[in-house]
Amino acid sequence: MSSTDWIRTKNRLVEEIVHLGFPAELGEMIAKNLGSPQAMERMISYLKYVKPKSDELIVDEMLAICSDISAWKDKKASEQANAAYNEVLNTGFGTDGEE
Question: What is the value of pTM for the model shown?
Answer without folding.
Answer: 0.73
